[in-house]
Amino acid sequence: MPKDNIDILIIGAGIVGVATAAILAESGRKVLVVDRQGICEGTSSGNAGALAFSDILPMASKGILAKVPGWLMDPLGPFTIRPSYLPRLLPWLYRFWRASSADMLERTVEAQGAMMRLAEPEMLGLMQRAGIGNMVREDGSLELYESESELNASLPGWSARKAAGIAFEHLRGSQLRECQPGLSPRFITGTFVPGWKTVSDPKHVGQSLWNYAQRNGAAFTHGEVTSISMNTHGAVAHFADGQTIEAAKVVVAAGAWSHHLAKYLGDHIPLETERGYNTTLPVGAFDLKRQLIFSGHGFVVTPLETGIRVGGAVELGGLKLPPNYKRSEIMLRKAEQFLPGLQSKGGRQWMGYRPSTPDSLPVIGSSRSTNNVLYAFGHGHLGLTQSAVTARLISDLIAGHTSSIPVDPYSPERFRS
Ligand SMILES: Cc1cc2nc3c(=O)[nH]c(=O)nc-3n(C[C@H](O)[C@H](O)[C@H](O)COP(=O)(O)OP(=O)(O)OC[C@H]3O[C@@H](n4cnc5c(N)ncnc54)[C@H](O)[C@@H]3O)c2cc1C
């Protein structure tokens, strides 16, 4: 596609940029996607593959905050802050703390719930239209607890999900063992969520959605965007090699790097990265029936067509510090204890950058400076799950349609106060 004949330039070919390209191309828009890597090669390639439509509780919920001091005592625990990064992190942490107030939490859960109700039909519908409906696994998830007190601590969260219409069942004894044979007896109870889904492999899903976007006319170019400016026809992306590309609309879907571009338009968005780690073991490493969630230890184990993925953890350490793969190892060692019989050799380690806002809601909406630049980032732990719904909301904004859910809760404007 000639670079001077495009309606919409999307910066970022992670799952959010790709889904947005797919939905815009379906409606006949001339779309060009730019990325300094390739299609879904970064964070969107190695995540845990959950379509977590029932995950409506923000990170800043009371349960998480209560656990943080204990986790911070453990430098390789599930939630850590790199000490050298702490000073830069303080403003974001302050907002994170504020997001845990009762009234903020209530609004966030409502907004996240509304988004998730639309996320499910949008994602499953897009995958069907792209011919990859068979990449969805409908096995549900099983969250596991080692004590009655751990289960009791989770109950307020389950009540909030029940109020949002999410089905689940607490299991014990033989029901628990049937749901996942081979579990360590240290787990005395668990919660099965039948509507939770996973995908066969998140990278394959992203690349297949891209193939669908391409079939509908979307194009890709390599390059690093260094800034964005406005002009009379729309917006201009400036590249590291000195080139520029103009488009009527520019969508910033650059994951954890998006706020660096937004600031050129006067938008100061508190985006941080929650770095996450995993190890993908070979196919057949364990007879896993569904995704297992060890929330007390901050990690999940997922059955993929490409292997068994053991990972999670949150490390607040910015975009530049080198990875600490001891985190991958720690989770794998725990998984060996929790799933005796797990074949833990031959794994591949990975780290990704979750793009995270303090209130766990994504940033979807126009720049304060111009309607010609739109933001689609900040999905934290849920970027795969919410990619298609984000694409739909961006498509509505571009077309000037009223969306089927209110978009104000996701607006970049919420950070101005
Ligand atoms: C361990 C882990 C497990 C996870 N599990 C799940 C899960 O089970 N389910 C779920 O829904 N989510 C999960 N997530 C979160 C999910 O992976 C992310 O929210 C999602 O991948 C973000 O997608 P994105 O497209 O916004 O960003 P990215 O995938 O990071 O894509 C952004 C792209 O923008 C490009 N880019 C950035 N800046 C520029 C620039 N200036 N110029 C050109 N290109 C640029 C980058 O190269 C990159 O390709 C997990 C994350 C981690 C780390």
Task: Explain what the structure shows.
This protein is of the alpha/beta class and 417 residues long. The protein has 2 domains: 8-45 and 203-270 and 360-415, FAD/NAD(P)-binding domain; 56-102 and 136-197 and 271-356, 2-Layer Sandwich (D-Amino Acid Oxidase, Chain A, domain 2). It is 32% helix and 25% strand. The chain has 10 helices and 21 strands. The protein has helices at residues 15-26, 62-72, 86-98, 102-129, 148-163, 173-179, 202-215, 258-262, 326-338, 387-399, and strands at 8-11, 31-35, 50-51, 79-81, 136-137, 141-145, 169-172, 189-193, 197-199, 219-222, 225-230, 235-239, 244-247, 249-252, 272-281, 291-294, 299-304, 307-316, 348-356, 363-366, 373-377. Strand 1, helix 1 (15-26) and strand 2 form a beta-alpha-beta unit. It is globular. It binds flavin-adenine dinucleotide. Flavin-adenine dinucleotide (FAD) binds next to helix 1, strand 2, strand 15, strand 18 and strand 19. Residues 11-17, 34-37, 41-44, 47-50, 52, 224-225, 253-257, 276, 278, 311-312, 352-355, 377, 379-385 line the site of flavin-adenine dinucleotide.
